[in-house]
Task: inverse folding
C-alpha cells in the first residue's frame, strides 16, 4: 500500500544545523506523507542522525522549520514532540535494562496517561482502570513484536535482535503518527533483518503510521521504501523512488567515488 493521495504529516523546510563552523545539515527540504515508508540514506557523516535529532527535539535547528501534523515543532522539548505524535528508536538501543519488558513498554505510554499524581496516590477507580488498560495495551504490543512470553524478564537479558523489537514496541506505546527508526536492522543477521522489515510493514499497515528510517542496508531500503532521500555532506543530493535513486549519478558518486560506473554502463561498454 502506498501513500499516494494522502496528506503530508511531516513538512521540513530549509532545515539547517551548524556546530561552530561545521554545517551538519544544510537547508534540507523534506516531506513525509501519511502512511508512507520513507528512507533517509547517505554515507557516514552525511547528517542523517543530526536531521533525526532536530525532528525529534534533541537538537534545536539553526534555521528552518519542522511542521508536523500542521504545527511547528520549533522550540519544543523531546517529550512534547512525543506527545504531539512522533515516536523514535535509536541507533544505540536505549532501554531500561534493569526493568522488565512490560515496564519498558509502559514507560512509552507515559505521554498518553491522564491520571493525576493524587489519583495514583489514592488509587482512585479512574486510576486503577487506566492502569489496567495500559497493562493490556502493553501486552498487546509485546505480542505484536513476539515478546509477550518474556514480559516479566529484564530487558537487559534479551539478545540484541529482541531488544530492537522491544524498542519498537516502546515507541509504538506513545501512539505515534510518525515513527522515526534509526538503523532498525543494524547488527542483525539475515533472519532477524527479514523479521524486522516484515514488522515495519505490519506496523504501518495495522497502525496507519508513517515511517521514516535511516538505514545502511540498501536491500532493506529498496524493499521497504516508497520514497528515498539521499544526504551527502549535509545536503540533499537526490530524492525519488528507490529505483530512481539507485540510478542517480550523484548518489553513485557519493557512495562509490567518481571512478565507478553504473552497472548498466559497464555492460553497455563491454558490447560497444
Result:
Amino acid at each position: 500500500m502506498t501513500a499516494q493521495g494522502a496528506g503530508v504529516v511531516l513538512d521540513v523546510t530549509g532545515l539547517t544545523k551548524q556546530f561552530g563552523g561545521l554545517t551538519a545539515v544544510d537547508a534540507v527540504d523534506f516531506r513525509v506523507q501519511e502512511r508512507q515508508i520513507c528512507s533517509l540514506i547517505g554515507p557516514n557523516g552525511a547528517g542523517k542522525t543530526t536531521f533525526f535529532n532536530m525532528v525529534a527535539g534533541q537538537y534545536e535547528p539553526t534555521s528552518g522549520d519542522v511542521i508536523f501534523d500542521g504545527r511547528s515543532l520549533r522550540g519544543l522539548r523531546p517529550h512534547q514532540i512525543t506527545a504531539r505524535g512522533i515516536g523514535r528508536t535509536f541507533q544505540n538501543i536505549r532501554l531500561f535494562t534493569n526493568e522488565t519488558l512490560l515496564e519498558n513498554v509502559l514507560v512509552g505510554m507515559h505521554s498518553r496517561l491522564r491520571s493525576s499524581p493524587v489519583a495514583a496516590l489514592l488509587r482512585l477507580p479512574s486510576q486503577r482502570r487506566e492502569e489496567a488498560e495500559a497493562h493490556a495495551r502493553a501486552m498487546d504490543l509485546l505480542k505484536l513484536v513476539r515478546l509477550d512470553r518474556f514480559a516479566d524478564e529484564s530487558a537487559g537479558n534479551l539478545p540484541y535482535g529482541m531488544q530492537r523489537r522491544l524498542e519498537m514496541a516502546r515507541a509504538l506505546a506513545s501512539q505515534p503518527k510518525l515513527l522515526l527508526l534509526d538503523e532498525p536492522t543494524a547488527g542483525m543477521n539475515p533472519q532477524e533483518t527479514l523479521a524486522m522489515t516484515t514488522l515495519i510493514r505490519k506496523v504501518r499497515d495495522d497502525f496507519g503510521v508513517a515511517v521514516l528510517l535511516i538505514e545502511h542496508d540498501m536491500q532493506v531500503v529498496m524493499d521497504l521504501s516508497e520514497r528515498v532521500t539521499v544526504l551527502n555532506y549535509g545536503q540533499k543530493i537526490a530524492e525519488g523512488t528507490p529505483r530512481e535513486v539507485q540510478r542517480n549519478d550523484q548518489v553513485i558518486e557519493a557512495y562509490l567515488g567518481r571512478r565507478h560506473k553504473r552497472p548498466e554502463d559497464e555492460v553497455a561498454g563491454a558490447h560497444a
Q: What stands out?
A: The radius of gyration is 20 Å.
